[in-house]
Specification:
Among the domains are: 2-85, Nucleic acid-binding proteins (OB fold (Dihydrolipoamide Acetyltransferase, E2P)); 91-250, P-loop containing nucleotide triphosphate hydrolases (Rossmann fold, 3-Layer(aba) Sandwich), CATH 3.40.50.300. The chain is globular and about 60 Å long. It has 14 helices and 15 strands. It is of the alpha/beta class. Helix 10 (266-278) crosses helix 14 (328-355). The strands form 4 sheets. It has a 6-stranded mixed beta sheet with strand order 10-9-8-11-15-14, sandwiched between helices. Strands 1-2-3-5-4 form a 5-stranded mixed β-barrel. Bound molecules: guanosine-5'-diphosphate and zinc ion. Zinc ion binds at residues 277, 280, 285, 287, 290, 293-295.
Length: 356
């Protein structure tokens, strides 16, 4: 069963120490205020973090939808305890809305980000750029999706415009209403891979999700289950299997990730570290004992706050997603955009310190 959710040999290796501890793997399909729903080989179980994980989570963050976790189970009660989060391949991060502004993972292990924009609205290049930046930053591969192609007699010029905005990034035209372009869209998603749809409200994300889920929607959307009080509650799956073998994460937090953090956040949170890493002597620097490591240098000189570095590492994010994609234009655009954000971010940091 977990194979459907993207379980792989790589994950199995990462899981080995947890397996020796007698734990089983599972993937978070629902995150609620009072707990999680986790898909396992024993079916779906209601799960809560262990006391220890909860304690560590204050710094490292809580399990998020899409996370792979290590569980101990009580199958009689269909419940489980989450003991650990496996290292994340990718993560969508945003800052908490409260005054702490702590980075929070809103979805983990996402392979593909569909950046959804609509044919009939004016193209907003800056907005697309933000969503692209959010996708690059997360580590997911972006694909631009142009919806409502049925509304334009000649949609190709618009697609060409987008291609020049997002060089190296595939652009797919779809019409959910007419069922056009859906196979092309899904061809980007391999079985076991997980995608998200991000984009502004009204561009057609819900409609597209419904079409992609097809008849499954009814079966997967809402499942009644007993809660602790024996009442029945309805929980909407946030991570859902698609009929074709891929998976989709659909939550309000993810949909909006590019915009919420547009002004200062997502990129600004980690951009300074990313830049440092670019200055390391070795491309594949692990920032441990390598000679010429700019990250260690900055830590030693005090230019990089050790707490920020620790936080960054704990989030399990990989560095330089933008760099890896070797997308020069996207990188340049991001540089320009970040010029102002950096200043803003430093000012925020100063204020934080002042408040201490
Ligand atoms: P969301 O806010 O991004 O989830 O957007 P919705 O899925 O709610 O769609 C917004 C509006 O666009 C709705 O009125 C839909 O009926 C309409 N819409 C969605 N997909 C299509 C399409 O392929 N063609 C046309 N013509 N309209 C569409
Ligand atoms: Zn380094």
């Amino acid at each position: 069963m977990i194979k459907q959710y993207g379980w792989s040999d790589l994950l199995m290796r990462a899981f080995a120490p947890h397996a020796s501890a007698g734990h089983i793997p599972g993937r978070v399909v629902v995150q609620q205020r009072n707990g999680y729903l986790v898909a396992t080989d024993e079916g779906e179980l209601r799960a809560k973090p262990s006391g220890r994980l909860r304690h560590e989570a204050r710094e490292a963050g809580h399990p998020a939808v899409g996370d792979w976790v290590a569980l101990s189970t009580n199958l009689a009660e269909r419940t489980a305890t989450i003991h650990a989060i496996l290292p994340r391949r990718t993560a969508f991060v945003r800052r908490a809305a409260d005054s702490t502004q702590t980075p929070q993972v809103v979805a983990a292990n996402i392979d593909l980000a569909f950046i959804v924009t609509s044919m009939n609205a004016d193209l907003n290049p800056r907005r697309i750029e933000r969503y692209l930046a959010a996708a690059w930053q997360s580590g997911a591969r972006p694909v631009v999706v142009l919806t409502k192609s049925d509304l334009l007699a000649e949609p190709h010029p618009r697609a060409a415009e987008l291609e020049s905005l997002a060089p190296g990034c595939p652009v797919v035209m779809v019409s959910a209403r007419q069922g056009l372009g859906l196979e092309t869209l899904l061809a980007h998603l391999a079985p076991g891979e997980t995608c998200v749809l991000i984009g502004s409200s009204g561009v057609g994300k819900s409609t597209l999700v419904n079409v992609l889920l097809g008849e499954q929607r009814m079966a997967t959307q809402a499942i009644r289950e007993g809660d602790d009080q024996g009442r029945h509650t309805t929980s909407h799956r946030q991570l859902v299997l698609l009929p074709g073998g891929g998976l989709i994460v659909d939550t309000p937090g993810v949909r909006e990730v590019g915009l919420i953090d547009a002004d200062e956040g997502l990129s600004a949170v980690f951009d300074d570290i990313e830049r440092l890493a670019e200055a390391c002597r070795f491309n594949n620097c692990g920032h441990a004992n390598e000679p010429g490591c700019a990250v260690r240098g900055a830590l030693e000189s005090g230019a990089l706050d050790p707490d920020r570095w620790a936080h960054f590492q704990k989030l399990g994010l990989e560095l330089a997603a933008v760099e890896d994609k070797a997308d020069r234009a996207a990188r340049e655009a991001e540089r320009r955009r970040l010029g102002g954000l950096q200043k803003k971010y430093r000012a925020t940091k100063k204020n934080d310190r002042g408040a201490d």
